Amino acid sequence: MKKVTTTIIMLFALLLMLTGCAKQEFAVKVNKQSIPMTTYEEKLNASKTYYEKQGMDFSTDQGKSSLESIKSSVLEELIMDELIKQEVEKNKWDTTNPEVSKLIEKNIKSQLKDMDYQVFLDERGMTEEEVTNRYTFIYNIGKDVTVSDQEVQQYFESHYSDYGGQDEQVKASHVLVATEEEANKVIQEYNAGKDFSELAKEYSTDTGSKDSGGNLDYFSRGEMVTEFEDAAFSQKVGSISETPVKTKFGYHVILVEDHKEAVVPDFEKVKASVQEDALENAKNLKVSSYYSELRQAAQVEYAEDLKPAGAQ
Fold this sequence. Notes:
Elements: H1 2-21, E1 26-30, E2 33-36, H2 37-53, H3 61-91, H4 98-107, H5 117-123, H6 128-142, H7 149-157, E3 169-177, H8 180-191, H9 196-203, E4 215-220, H10 226-234, E5 245-247, E6 250-260, H11 267-297, E7 300-302
Antiparallel strand pairs: 1-2, 1-7, 3-4, 3-6, 5-6
Helix pairs in contact: 2-3, 3-6, 4-6, 6-11, 7-11
């Protein structure tokens, strides 16, 4: 009897060890709904194959870094598709609605040219059901959105370049440093005759521009942080900042090299297109906001191996 009892205990211990070492069968649970690890692996492999065809080499340092981002994206996409599926089912939205089919045709199928739709899906590890659910979600969230004449005008004024015009632009270079004292030193040395490009190469902490002498090329309003933008667009061409410009990145000394005024297209000639684009933009903003709320409220449990940093 003692021998039998010992054998049973050993079997239980072995089972516990095997259970502890076993690979988790789910990749992630979304509101208690499990998504299999096999689904995650299939989508990840499809994504890796797609990027390899674009020239990505996952054996390099850059490739390894990119792979981590791809893994995160695949996992987040699985969560998104499951949340969308749950919302479609909860609201009993009709996935066979002709308006949904029109959106898929407009946004995907009509853009494929000679590529087969199924090949497109397979290359991206997507299913037809997932695409249909996404566009069912998009259609139903956005179908009642409208835009006022004022909103259309505002959209037009911030997208001149989309309608044959040109946004107001500034061409500038900058030196970014950590402290106001360092920025004042740059200003003093420039005023004493030192070349701005050389100052950027010597002092700037902006690794993206310092080697080119701080060159940021042309940019429009809305592309830079507010403090930097306000200073650059208010400076005279050929001048540098009289005082350092503080942003969340540090202290900037800005040299404005050119300033192009906006070229305004004829609104009446493009009004129909602007109205359509402004409405589409408003719908997209509502869909994005709606999904963000779903994602924030979702209960998400990750497999231990896939748990992002900071996740519970």
